[in-house]
Write a structure and sequence with these properties.
Layout lengths: L1 H11 L4 E12 L6 H12 L8 E7 L2 E3 L6 E3 L1 E2 L11 E2 L10 E4 L3 E10 L2
Parallel strand pairs: 1-2
Antiparallel strand pairs: 1-8, 3-4, 3-7, 5-6
The structure holds zinc ion.
């Protein structure tokens, strides 16, 4: 999270900013970063900076996998845990042939966009 904040601030240095309205992040499901924890950390870390008062929006990125054996490419399937949808566990093997796969999306966390108000 601290790395992300640094990245956001660095990006903001390029502009003549009046205020920051919104920072949008894409967070892969495999990063295990909880949205609530991140929002809290953001609030704490944005204090007394240009980011103070801005809103953090977190978009969850689904996991995508690629199978080298059969060529399957697409979202990873979730293990069936019944009603408990808050704890979806992705299956990191090919849904078609069961081979191990390469994870192509869902394990990174990055800044997607920053909504700012620039000075005239
Ligand atoms: Zn496969």
């Amino acid at each position: 999270m601290a790395d992300l904040m640094a990245a956001v601030k660095k990006e903001l240095e390029k502009y003549d900013i009046v205020s920051v309205k919104e920072v949008r992040l894409t967070v892969g499901r495999l990063t295990n970063l909880g949205a609530e924890q991140m929002e809290f950390a953001y609030e704490v870390m944005s204090k007394d900076s240009i980011l103070e008062g801005s809103k953090l929006v977190i978009e969850e990125e689904e996991i995508e996998i690629k199978c080298e054996r059969c060529g399957y490419q697409g979202p990873a399937e979730d293990m069936d845990l019944g009603e408990d949808m808050h704890h979806r566990i992705p299956v990191l093997s090919c849904p078609k042939c069961g081979s191990s796969v390469i994870i192509t999306a869902g394990k990174t966390c990055c800044v997607k966009s920053i909504d700012i108000e620039e000075a005239d």
